[in-house]
Amino acid sequence: MPCASRQIARALGGSPVHIALDKKTLYHAAATLASGQVLALVEAATQLLISLGMKCNEAARARHGLGLWQEEVIRL
Q1: For residues 50 and 68, which has the higher predicted lDDT (pLDDT)?
Q2: 29-54: per-residue pLDDT in tens?
Q3: b/e sequence 10-48, b meaning 16+ C-beta within 10 Å
Q4: Three-state secondary structure call for residue 19
Q5: What is the spatial distance between Cα 23 and Cα 60, in angstroms, rounded to a whole number?
Q6: pTM, whole model, 2 decimals?
Q7: Half-sphere exposure of 11 (CA within 13 A, CB side)
Q8: Which helix (H) or strand (E) holds 55?
Q9: How many CA atoms lie within 13 A of 53 on its CB side?
Q10: Residue 56: CB partners within 8 Å, gap ≥ 6?
């Protein structure tokens, strides 16, 4: 991994690792599956909060209180 990409990974709170070229497809598949699941869970939680009668902005604030922070999801 080039030096700049290691610095970017660390700046974003990640831990850079070397992935062999022939394994990168598997890495990207795993990342795609994981990110989609996290976003789906956050959206499901939001919809449940809205079904309680909350407005969208109230549900977003409540989501933060539950630890479902958008910034954390994006970092994943």
Answers
A1: 50
A2: 998 888 778 778 888 888 999 999 99
A3: eeeeeeeeeeeeeeeeeeeeeeeeeeeeeeeebeeebee
A4: coil
A5: 37
A6: 0.48
A7: 6
A8: none
A9: 0
A10: 46, 50
Report the greatest alpha carbon distance in the chain. Answer: 50
Interatomic CA distance for residues 70 and 38, integer angstroms: 10
Read off the tokens for 43.
């959206």
Whether 16 contacts 1, CB under 8 Å: yes
Q: State both tokens at 72.
A: 């954390």
Supply φ then ψ for residue 7, to 5 degrees: -65, -40
Instruction: Tell me the residue length of the chain.
Output: 76
Task: Determine whether 76 is exposed, middle or buried from the number of CB atoms within 10 Å of its CB (0-12, 13-18, 19+).
Answer: exposed
> Can you tell me the distance from the alpha carbon of 12 to that of 53, in angstroms, rounded to the nearest whole number?
36
